[in-house]
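Q: Here's a chain of 430 amino acids. Please give me its 3D structure as tokens.
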Amino acid sequence: MNVNTQSATALSSSAMIALMLAVFTVSVGFGVVLPLLPYLIERLLGAGVQPAQVSRHTGLLTAVYTLSLFLFAPIWGRLSDQRGSRGVLLVGLLGFGVTMLVFAFVESLIAIYAERFLSGVFSAAVTPVAAAVVGNLTTIDHGRARRLSFVSLAGIAGFLLGPMLGVFVTRLVADIFTFTTLAGSVAAPLAATALLAFVAALAVALTVPNGNGQDQPAKTKDASVDKTVWLVPKLLILTFIVSASVGVFEVGLVLRGKQELGLTAYQIALMFTECSLVMFLLQAIVFSPLVKPDATRWLIAPALAVLATGLFFIPRASDFSLMLVVIGAVAASAGILSPILTYWISAKAERAQGWELGKQTAAASLGVTLGSAAGGLLFNTAVQPGAPFILAALLVIIGFVLSLQLPQLLVHRNLRINAIAGDPQEQSPS
């Protein structure tokens, strides 16, 4: 039974804040864990652990999380289209909170693998469905672009605060309670994330309508012509490529910082913070009212070129300062590509927002899964130093070639009735 009783309901500011809090929460959960993984693995495997083992498990644990996103995001998205989005969001947030609580107290590497998979399962019900709510309940293209960018910025903000939260809260708890091991103090940021997930679930339950806006008008007849049949698949392929490069980048950044540059956990967290800040600022500019959503199609190819260049130079950055410069280039390009691709997929999804954005999350997750695994498994190869970064750069070059015709193919066609002048949604700052 479809739940569409509130389908015509506009997306309120309070509902938008709840959606952003939900996405922020799952991003914090990922960001808290990532910088601590190598140190946690070293402790669990004991004295004498080899760097290659740490690299392998760091990559695989990250890949397990994103693999579950790949498997379950389309399922959750389809379910939200059929049964309503609010229930799916609640299941995702509550399940994510419980798994983070469990993670705070596990003392087995096998249990950590299981927890990472389950956390991914539940987080797969949050980010794509939150974006689908925006796509379904926003009738004006400028409003859709801006609100989708807010959802993306919430995710970046969570990833921005996550690594620093993991490091600083661990130190704070260690000082207050005189913990001397990671096992005693890492529970605090994880438990705090779980609490935040429960708060986000309450906010969603109180503010987000359960309908999906499926009484909206259909596409105009000329919006689907033969030459654009493969347009969305191309956007999904580019999503995969960008995400695979980000997966290599994230894992490789942690491993290179620790094993080759001898950086501390604080410095590694600082690199991720810089990465997130650059993404945040660039998205705020690109999706500001000063830039028309239609113009974003011209940024795809240049951003891919910058991304490939940045990835190529990461293994050649010989110190912390140079790493910060290269990281800024990678973050700037990857940071605008993801929301631009999300916007255009949503613009073409019409009534199947959950399904199409779920597929995009699946494509992104598969990319991050393979990229993370490759980043961990290939990092210590003797064949070519920096091999995972170089392979990622080559993959992005392929994406650059595929993107060259997109500005002509992505000729903007309004999927909603944009002649609704003075739409009340456009008056809201959200």
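Q: Can you summarize the key feature?
A: The radius of gyration is 21 Å.
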